[in-house]
Structures are given as structure tokens and as C-alpha cells.
Amino acid sequence: DKIEAAMRDNRDKALRELHNRFSADSYEGQIVTRRDIRAITENKPPLLYNDTGKREFLIAWDSARINDNSIIGIGELWEDPKTGLNMTIQNCISLVDVSTKNKTPMRLPEQQEKFKEILLDYNGTDKGALDYENIRQVVCDAGAAGQIIGGVTDYLLDDWVDKHGEKHRGLIDRSHKSSESAKEKFPNAVDIIKLVEPRAHRNEIFESLGRMVKQGLVHFPADSNEKDYIEFVDDDGKECKIDLTHDEQVALNQLDLMKTEAVTMCKYTHGELTTYDFPPEKRNKMHDDRAFVMGLLCFAFGKIRRGSFVEAKEVNDYESAEVCVTPLEF
């Protein structure tokens, strides 16, 4: 049963670890390699909430309802004295309805309720943090298939009350054309959402993923080894063991899927046309939602490092690849 479940969840990893069928995970044009990922993976458990109330986070969400996975990625922003701002991708959350046969995503109202819980957890609200003061940005895939516009974001505009009876302000992207009337109707909503058009920015999103990983500015918690602990030897030669909770194991499993998707993504150039996709033999067999969320985190992180955020001009329904630079606002 364990082997069958592992094959369903991550076939390549299961073949490697349970069947001893090793692969180099090498594809022509891949944007990052397994070696690149290992170099940025640290022997630490994932972070499931803002344990100090002072950590700062970037959140990315690729919403879906039926055919794809609805994925939320959590990136912690922190300063390194030598390289400046860095990011650790602390969690990857799949909003699945466990009661469905094929584990399809939750209904949209349930997704937004779960998102609000995640938002409060990583903001450190239970530690006394003010509304979203520790959330630098919420970056969302604005593609029509995910129903983020006219669906999820509509549920987030108004003030809302959490399960403890505490009231919180709504969320909005005031710069997006979909908020033209909403920004007048919901003046109390906090402008920390950034809706990103995938058709206009897909190439830049995956370019950012490759660039940030290779520069060593993005980091991951430990690999999942299908165990309830992390075991390693530290710099002093001492054997160390860190026990994991069930939720931490789930997070590491999801992050491993994100890593696998990232190393499978390839860049293809045909004349002046550049596209990003899985190798032909992997297409229609794997989802790229987690890799895309990782790309969204890297895309937004890169803009934050440069002190700006690039958004598509409102031309031809956001299909134009032309961009303009506007200041990053909280």
C-alpha cells in the first residue's frame, strides 16, 4: 500500500527510492537541475506558521477548481549579511477535497476560507501582529481557469470574521482592472494582492525561477525521506535528528513534488519564440502547478529585491507582453 501510494504521489521519486531505478533527472533545456536544488536544500523542518510574530512572508496562489491542483506557496523573506534579501520556500499547500475520489480541489468558498486561515497563521496574528503586517505580498495567477478573478478574489474584498470572532480587513489589488468598481466599494480592503497574468508573464516567471535558484538566493527545508524525522551530520561531525509532526511531513512531501516539477521544467527556443514546458514524454502525465507557484514566488521575490513590481499594461485584455514598472506598495 505504501509503495502504491508513493507511486501515485511522486512516481519518479518512488521509482528512485523504492524500486532502485535511478535517473539523472536530466532533460535538454531544463532550467534547474537536481544538483541545483540539493545546493539550496537545508537540514531544517518546514515552517508551518509565524512562530515569532516577526517573520515576513510572501504568498503565491495558483487557484484551480477541477482539472488542475490549487496550490499555495509560502516564501519567508530574510536578510543575509552578504547577499541581501533571501527567500526560503517554507511550505507548499494543496487545497484538495480529501472526500473526492480523485482528490480534486475544494469548492471555491472552502478554498478562500482555508486561504484566510493560512494568511493569519503566517501573519502571526495570534502573536499580536496587526492585519497582514507580516505579509509582504500575495501573488495570484490571474488566469481564467483558476477563477481567481470573479471568484476567489470577490470573496476576499469585504471585511471578515475569523473562527475566533476577530474581525479582519479585506484584500484587494487596486491596480488591476477587475477592481475598477471594487476599490470604491471596499475602501477598507488592504492592497497587498498582486494579480499576475500568466500569458503575459509565463516566460519571465520561469526565468526568475531558474535565475534565483542558480544565484543561491532561494532555499528549501529538508528533503522528505518518507520518515517522521530528519537525520543529518552537522558541520562539526555530530549526528543530529529532528522529529517531524504529521503536518511537517505533509509539507515536506508537497515541497518534494514542487522540486520534482521544477527540475522537469525545460526551456525551448524556436527561432525568436521561447516557451517553457515539460519534456514531451512528461506532458499530460504531470501537473506543473507547484513549479508555477515556485516561479510566482521567485518572480515576485525578484521584483521586491529590485524594489519594483512589473505588471502588464492594460492592452488587449492583458495579452500584451509589454510591461511598465510601478513602485511596490504595501
How would you explain this protein's 3D organization?
- By secondary structure, the protein is α/β, with parallel strands linked by helices.
- It contains nine helices and 14 strands.
- The strands form five sheets. The chain has a six-stranded mixed sheet with strand order 7-4-1-2-3-8, sandwiched between helices. It has a two-stranded antiparallel ribbon with strand order 5-6.
- A hairpin with a 3-residue loop joins strand 2 (71-80) and strand 3.
- Helix 4 packs across helix 5 and helix 8 (246-264) crosses helix 9 (289-305).
- It starts with a helix and ends with a strand.
- The model is unreliable at 310-330 (pLDDT under 50).
Low-confidence sequence ranges:
310-330
Please estimate the helix content: 25-40%
SS class: alpha/beta
Summarize the main sheet. Answer: 6 strands, mixed
Q: How far from one another are the termini?
A: 48 Å
Oligomer: single chain
Summed over residues and divided by their number, the pLDDT gives a mean of 85
Proportion of residues in β-strands: 15-25%
Rg (C-alpha, Å): 20 Å
> Overall 3D geometry?
globular
Count of strand segments: 14
Order of helices and strands: HHHEEEHEHEEHEHEEEHEEHEE
How many H/I helical runs? Answer: 9
- Widest sheet: strand ordering: 7-4-1-2-3-8
